[in-house]
Amino acid sequence: MIKPLSAAISAALLVSAMSPAFAQDQTDTATNLDQVIVTGSRTPVAIEKVPGAVTLVTAEQVQRTLNLTEDATAVLARMVPGYSESSQAMSNSGETLRGRIALRLFDGVPQGSPLREGNRNGTFTDMGVIGRIEVINGPSAAEGIGGAGGVINYLSKNPEVDGHQTIINTRYGTQFKDNSDQSKIGVTHTYRGDAADFVISGAYIDRGISYDGDGRRVGLNTSGSLSDSYSKNLFVKGGYNFGEDQMQRIQASYSNFHIGGKHNYIPVEGCRFDPVECPNPTTNTAEKGSIAGSLAEFNDFEQFAVKYTNADFFGGDLSVDAYWAEQAMRYVPENGDDRQLTKPAPTNDADRIWDQSEINSEKKGLRFGYAYSELFKVEGLRLRAGLDLVEDTAEQRLALTNRLWVPPMKYTSIAPYAQLSWDIGPVTLDAGIRREDGELEIDSYTTVAFRDNTPVQGGKMDYKANMPNFGAIWRINDQWSVFASYSEGFGIANVGIPLRNIQANSPCKAVSCIADLQPLITENKEIGFNWRGAKGQVGASVYRSTSDFGSTLTVDKATDDFILTRSPVEIEGFELNSAWTFNEQWKATFLYSRIRGQTQYYPGSGLKKEMGILDISPDKVNASLTWTPSEALNATLGVSKTFSRDLRETFTNPSNGDVYVNEENTYGYALWDLSVNYDTGRFGQLSLGIENLFDKQYVLTWSQLPGWQNYFSGRGRMVSLSHTIKF
Predict the structure, then answer these.
(1) Is the pTM of the predicted complex or chain greater than 0.85?
(2) Interior/surface letters 230-258, b for 16+ CB within 10 angstroms, e for the rest
């Protein structure tokens, strides 16, 4: 409901970039923006009337990325300026949106739980069922808890044609090395009639091990790998239109997704350069085998949703949504000190145990929305209002020894909202407010041995906040528009981490006094412009995002594990997105993102510390060139360039002379890819995809920062051939 603001890009650019049809029909797309409807504001709104515009990723853009890789977040890294590099793993560790963790939704249903962010929420369905993705780049209170870092809503496909249609998609990929093959089969059947429609889709993917540009096996990610895994997905959605002029609709959907490791390899830790201990550095790798007693890692995502709409409810549009979702995530075995049964941990490897953590979450929600145009009979004045009821629960366990690591947590919320928009000729004014009234309940528990088996008193905390937003967009003429906006978002900063880290010497051992459990309120200010002409389009925006009690991740040098730091945060950024059509055969796209963030070294130091790679991604450029010589053939050459960044700074506390050192150096690289599509007609479409075209050897940017077993190289060249047939 609260309108978050993304990179200021025109709707035509966002909807059409990378689409073969764009070169033939660009003018029509550009002049009919009110035909492009987005739902990221909780009720359908024409994108040209959204100050700041939601970023749209189309089905064509999703499909082009699928020609290259089945990684669920790769399309975001390529198409969304503020989204960071894809982790190429089951985990989305290190992936941020404008420097913050975004809330991921599937058809409006939250995936995972912000109560215990496990960095697994990006792999929750088969991307073949996704029709488009709406990305809210700035903080948004639209979905309540978790939207402080923006919202990414994956929307499922709808039937494309009247009557029955079956789509069969097969894919084979290889790196031409031992057990590097990948294969997929997906079947989708749709039906669209006068009143009823449905989609039934199933898919199975089998993945081998991955290799880097040097031909070495890529190590198994400690948070879960896509390598050596399989996934299966079932998705069903059906709807029925009824009533006078079919103004009412009831729709139900069910999704069941599972991805699991095949358990054929064990991780082998590499070593970073050290002149004495590691003069010849090597990245993490994997070797065949398994750890005795361990279980395969997995993601299980299951959800059920029902939606009722009435387009003529007392003169307005009514929508009622109910959903239930359950998610379980098991991680790979680890034998770190924090997994041991005793403290101090055994020094002999033979005496150390391996354990696996597992996060379980469940959520239930009921949402009401109502939109009314011509309010008070004022032309162009529109009201959108509603009420959200949410219950979100989560916990984390060490599965092999059945120990509680993060206690059961339950968050309940009642959140009313109201939004007014007024079209005054070429100007749209928009303003609203959402009231978050929530309660977090945490059970009493005892920490693990590494944290001294410390008893912690449970309790309840209230979360109350009023989050306003306002903005304006001025459509100066058919080519130019400008906008300005202010929005707020609400979240809880991964409370599971501070809860599990309480130990004997902690000053607070009760929920009531843990400062890190306080809410995360984010404010975003943004201005930008859009230009669209007969041949091209350009959009740019600058933004400033602040939080007085923010959330950043740092690596604890004693444990090599993540710890949560709560302190003021300020993030500033610039984004540019553009497309140019040279003629009917050639077109190009270009996007650029620059983000900088500051926090404090210690309370009262001021915003003097530059934020590093765990929160702020380096500058990036993505570009593509598409050649369409005929209606049957098109080819796209793309490049993703990540820039180097050196953070070298010291800060001296003027009161006591303490010196703080902040040093983090990451190197950049450019990765090229090629996608070719050929429509044979009656025999379907063939697609060739080559990821990492020049087989470049590199270390993933977020993995260049030393941490717990996180020294991973990126994937080398992958060649894939896909076939899609419809009948």
Answers:
(1) yes
(2) bbebbbebebebeeeeeebbebbbebbbe
